[in-house]
Amino acid sequence: MKICWQRDSMLSMAGLMVAAALFLPQPWQTGGRGRSESRPPQLIVLLVFAKEDSQSNGFCWACEKANFRCSMARTPESALECFLEKHHDLIIIDHRHSRHFDAEALCRSIRVVSSSENTVIVAVVKRYVQFADPPLPLCPFLRYVENANMMACYNELLQLEHGEVRSQFKLRAGNAIFTAMEQSQEAIEITSEDQVIQYVNPAYESITGYQQGELIGKEIIEVPKSEKNKPDLLETINSCIRKGKEWQGIYYAKKKNGDSIQQNVKITPVIGQGGKYKDRRKGSLDVRSTTSRGSDGSSQRRHSSMARIHSMTIEAPITKVINIINAAQESSPMPVAEALDRVLEILRTTELYSPQLGTKDEDPHTNDLVGGLMTDGLRRLSGNEYIFSTKQPHHIPGQLTTPLSLNDIPPRIAQTMENEDSWDFDIFNLEAATMKQPLTYLGLKIFSRFGVCEFLNCPEATLRSWLQVIEANYHSSNSYHNSSHAADVLHATAYFLCKERVKQSLDPIDEVAALIAATVHDVDHPGRTNSFLCNAGSELAILYNDTAVLESHHAALAFQITTRDDKCNIFKNIERNEYRTLRQAIIDMVLATEMTKHFEHVNKFVNSINKPLAALEENGESVKSILTSPENRILVKRMLIKCADISNPCRALELCIEWAGRISEEYFAQTDEEKRQGLPVVMPVFDRKTCSIPKSQISFIDYFITDMFDAWDAFADLPNLMQHLDNNFKYWKGLDEKKLHNLRPPPE
């Protein structure tokens, strides 16, 4: 009998031949630790493109350069016929033009063939196009965003070879190994790290008399042992295994009927990925092969989110570099792999994540959204600049009918806040009940729930005064950027802070900072974009050098308002160093809501948190070091407030529609004013006479929302938000397909 144990799983077997089949890697699998590395068997690639173009030529060239065998098919019928003949390892299907053929139907046809089980299928999709639904179970596309650059195609093939394709080779080998174990005449037993039995083969059942159902899930120590073994035998074995050494000797097993049988046993530690040397590869796991361990049925959804994260439409060059380094690590000697780990650490903590945005001329709505939200305006050279003055007095609340404390809230208002901890909480009901003062009331309840006054050593009356003066400095005349939006973002922030993964990441001071940042993040917003202020030559734009103008103003004004009067200074009783830490966190979160760095923040979160987390979870390692590092806590807080700030498309449909109408009206008003003042029109599609609101929402979801919330969902587990997002996208898509421009279809 041969027993092989490792830290993460243990394999016990009888028979040296089966053991050799199980633990001797294929020639192309060896590598690292000084061994020679050869490539997998020559890959066979099938390209399915209806017409020859630069993209198909790019992949043809890449296949030739990579020394892959390549076939080309022009129709689904010829593609299926070719696959049945050659059983390709990789299929790349053109999914950009549905008029030529149905790529998903072709994928399903291929998946019906049993030999396609280990075939990797990639769809070439249009730039800026996202799938509204997760990939179908029978149609698991990986996505390649069209890029005809030959080196881009070559790099993609290399990543696929070292990622998905190699994984499929290993799975294929694993299936063969499992068959060998099932057919083996020797007893085989597999246990987990803590010696819980996970598998026994038929020979084990025959020899010992036990059935699988009697053993699986039990610890080895629960199975009766023969008294003929020496008392300290198991400790001797465990001590040897912990040192990574083999042990060989006589072991007496006990059959179910009580008889003892003598076995000649060799015990070998199993090492490799997931075993003793796994730390060297901790950053190299391909996220596309990772699944969640959720017990609530969300595994497939979260797998889809992680897959989409890996193939994000907006991808920075640095992300490609990281993926290539990860792939290279798999076949590198130990010193090189360790050096590459250090390279990855440097890349993940520097400002290298801004994406290269391609041309968006084919979609004016997306073009205008990106131009309006992610640039600092077009400066006019005439000198005839519109001055947007900010010298309005900042309001101090007078006789506001707000409560002295949480206990004084009128019952009708308290009733509207009963479900404020639910994602489907209706902020507009509270807006109406409080006569447009929802921030003060909701703030009192949420801050009380999180113990903010206790943390700040601040009386509730001071908190109430602070909430009043902050709310008074929001412009109720704005259709969107008013205190109702601030209250909505505060609600979303509180909801996210209650998610288990977020709670594991953040300290109490982070939670307090997040709640305060959400409250003040748009204070004194003028209802105009940064681009407008820069084009208008406003005093704010001049003050902040056309850089993050509004966000800088919100953060600065919030602290000015707070600290100038002791009656509303919620920070006056905390220690100086704690105040500085809190202040820095609040400023950082408010500045993170600026959209010019949207993709930088999302890419950093994915590459520094999501992908390493997935790798650790796959290997069963502790994720605490990833979650609690100072750098990653900052990334979590930025992502949290960003998602809270633009979560409207993830709200229930009626709330989503209301917010869409409000933001559209604010953009319409800006366009009207730009035309009146002779300023550059930042977002021409937001002309109230011609704008299609459904198209604008579709573009916003496609370009900004989908990838970000896929990443946030993979981290925080938010199935209800993702379902709302899916429903809302379909709603806007349905209106657009009917060529409707308004928020709702006409009444029947």
TrEMBL record:
Gene3D superfamilies: 3'5'-cyclic nucleotide phosphodiesterase, catalytic domain, PAS domain. Binds 2 divalent metal cations per subunit. Site 1 may preferentially bind zinc ions, while site 2 has a preference for magnesium and/or manganese ions. It holds the Pfam family PAS. Zn(2+) 2 binds at D522. AMP binds at H481, N482, S483, S484, H485, D522, D645, Q697. Its EC number is 3.1.4.-. The keyword Iron does not apply. Its cofactor is a divalent metal cation. Pathway: Purine metabolism; 3',5'-cyclic AMP degradation; AMP from 3',5'-cyclic AMP: step 1/1. GO terms for biological process: cAMP catabolic process; cellular response to epidermal growth factor stimulus; positive regulation of ERK1 and ERK2 cascade; regulation of DNA-templated transcription; signal transduction. Residues 173-244 form the PAS domain. Residues 1-21 form the signal peptide. One of its GO terms (molecular function) is metal ion binding. Residues 405-739 form the PDEase domain. The keyword ATP-binding does not apply. Belongs to the cyclic nucleotide phosphodiesterase family. PDE8 subfamily. Interacts with RAF1. The interaction promotes RAF1 activity. This is Phosphodiesterase. It comes from Echeneis naucrates.
